[in-house]
Design brief:
- The chain is mainly alpha-helical and 104 residues long.
- The chain has helices at 10-22, 27-34, 38-103.
- The protein has one domain (10-103).
- The longest helix has 66 residues, at 38-103.
- The radius of gyration is 32 Å and the shape is rod-shaped.
């Protein structure tokens, strides 16, 4: 029979790491209370610290995504207006030539 591994929610991991950062209890005590190995705690902590800077990049990324979406929307509008302008020019040219034939 295979070994069953426990899975932990992201909230559980974050709470555990933050409890360690607060320093109110030792890491050993936190691990005992939460029934995890200290190596697991340190892996979570290291992952948290590695990813912490990305949180701020993600905030800037959201602004950039919004700007990119807005640029794409404006480019679509420009394309549509360009097509409408070309259609109007052709219609005017056609009407002018029709008017000259009939009106001359």
């Amino acid at each position: 029979m295979g070994r069953k591994y426990r899975t932990f929610t992201p909230d559980f991991k974050l709470d555990t790491v933050m409890e360690g950062f607060r320093g109110e209890k030792s890491i050993a005590q936190i691990c005992r209370e939460r029934k995890i190995k200290d190596t697991q705690y340190y892996k979570w902590r290291d992952t948290f610290l590695e990813q912490a800077a990305n949180i701020f990049d993600a905030q800037n990324g959201n602004k950039n995504n919004h700007l990119e979406d807005r640029i794409a929307e404006l480019e679509r509008m420009l394309g549509q207006l360009t097509m409408e302008n070309e259609i109007l020019k052709k219609a005017k040219s056609w009407l002018d030539s029709t008017y000259r034939k009939n009106g001359s």
